[in-house]
Design brief:
Radius of gyration: 15 Å
Helix content: 25-40%
Strand order of the largest sheet: 1-2-3-4-5-7-6
Low-confidence stretches: none
Mean pLDDT: 96
Shape: globular
Oligomer: single chain
């Protein structure tokens, strides 16, 4: 089991250490960050009052296992920077738990009911995770990024929080 806790400066080093290269950083953080990730970059992004960041902790031993954020804008809540730090823990349902906890947080604390996220098209495991929670592909919205000479396509996925709550 996991829990979300406020992401604080004392957790920065764990996040920085978990991002090993520029491609991982782009996949995790998008174009706002440049490799190597620094405390200054994290400070800058978290200074935005519309962004909330969480440390994902293992409830049995309190160890950090991940990171995730919510960004609020124009009546939407956007999930992002979802990361399970230890690659050996991926594919075990933790991502689904993280997303469900983020949705629960929004439902209980905010008025936004339209939720979205972006995921690169090659990250099939993440796409399946988000689909299991209830996200659907928004075919009208895609983004392209050039990373080391490769074109990466980010797909947009959406969820209505009221529908999600009624189904869970």
């Amino acid at each position: 089991m996991i829990r979300l806790e406020k992401f604080e400066k004392k957790h920065y080093s764990e996040l920085i250490d978990s991002v090993k290269n520029a491609k991982d950083l782009m996949q995790f953080g998008g174009p706002e960050f440049t490799f190597p990730l620094t405390e200054e970059q994290i400070d800058k992004t978290l200074s935005d009052k519309n962004r909330i960041a969480f440390r994902v902790a293992n409830t049995s031993n309190a160890n950090t296992i991940g990171h995730c954020e919510i960004y609020f804008y124009d009546g939407f809540a956007k999930l992002g920077r979802i990361l399970i730090m230890d690659k050996n823990l991926r594919g075990k349902g933790i991502g689904e738990q993280m997303v469900a906890l983020l949705l629960q947080y929004i439902f209980e604390n905010r008025k936004e009911r339209n939720i979205e996220l972006n995921v690169f098209d090659f990250n099939v495991g993440a796409q399946k995770c988000y689909e299991k929670v209830g996200f659907i592909l928004n075919p009208d919205k895609k983004y392209s990024r050039v990373v080391d000479g490769e074109v990466w396509t980010a797909l947009n996925m959406v969820l209505n929080l009221e529908e999600w709550k009624n189904n869970n």
